[in-house]
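Section 5: illustrative case.
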């Protein structure tokens, strides 16, 4: 299966080489008559090869070479292997979405799913209409959490590509006229029909749930131990202009506690608490 990544670009396509350059050979009378015979039986071809195969052949014979959009929903519904390929691609996309974080993400295949093939045993119609083809997926994923539930939504697009040309060994007989892959290629090389690109896409809106990842418990805030305070009382050296009141405000935030400082330093200050001198060492109790 294709891998996925975040992004919007389609993976690179590698078209089949087909029958070679268009109108690269001169027209031969026998080939021209064969084309006219095929055109005559095309209105009855859907009874043998199916509706889509007939439409694709009409487009080829129309010689425009313009891109043709196929009925991809019908192909997925009719061909068991095509439906299985589609379902596997969706599951691959869902698995990738579940690896993403919350938010909105564009996702896309990083490579093309090929070769895929509609077998004749599954559907004559799609065997002749397409045969081998390439497919890939892309989409927009939205991821949100609701409590312990993670909700996923994927707007998924399944894309298809093929170059209409007849595979080697393929042939069909309609009303007695056998049309081979070599003859179909000659119509292209002689400029009477033209190979063309077939494209298609289908979309699905997918919702599913899962268990939201548990959030890790926050790390505890480290406790920083308070360094031990100094041993013994603090010592304040008096500066010029200081008073016991201003010193009390520094240490206690309260000028009224000057008396506490005075009581502890009465022997140093003396009988007048209003008279202290620069350089004196006062004990701050």
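Designed sequence:
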């Amino acid at each position: 299966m294709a891998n996925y990544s975040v992004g919007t670009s389609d993976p690179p396509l590698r078209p089949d080489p087909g029958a070679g350059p268009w109108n690269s050979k001169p027209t031969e009378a026998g080939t021209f008559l064969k084309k006219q015979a095929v055109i005559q039986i095309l209105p009855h071809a859907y009874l043998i090869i199916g509706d889509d195969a007939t439409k694709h052949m009409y487009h080829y014979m129309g010689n425009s070479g313009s891109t043709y959009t196929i009925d991809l929903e019908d192909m997925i519904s009719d061909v068991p292997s095509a439906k299985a390929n589609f379902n596997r691609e969706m599951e691959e996309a869902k698995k990738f979405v579940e690896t993403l974080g919350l938010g909105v993400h564009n996702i896309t295949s990083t490579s093309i799913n090929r070769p895929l093939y509609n077998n004749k045993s599954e559907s004559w119609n799609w065997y002749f209409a397409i045969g081998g083809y390439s497919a890939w997926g892309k989409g927009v994923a939205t991821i949100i959490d609701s409590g312990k539930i993670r909700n996923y939504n994927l707007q998924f697009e399944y894309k298809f590509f093929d170059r209409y040309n007849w595979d080697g060994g393929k042939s069909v007989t309609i009303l007695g006229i056998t049309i081979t892959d070599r003859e179909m290629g000659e119509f292209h090389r002689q400029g009477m029909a033209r190979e063309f690109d077939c494209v298609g896409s289908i979309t699905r809106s997918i919702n599913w749930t899962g268990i939201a990842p548990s959030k890790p418990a926050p790390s505890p805030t480290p406790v920083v131990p308070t360094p031990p305070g100094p041993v013994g009382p603090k010592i304040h050296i008096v500066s010029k202009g200081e008073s016991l009141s201003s010193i009390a405000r520094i240490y206690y935030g309260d000028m009224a506690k000057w008396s506490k400082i005075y009581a502890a330093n009465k022997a140093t200050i003396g009988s007048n608490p209003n008279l202290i001198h620069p350089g004196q060492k006062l004990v701050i109790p």
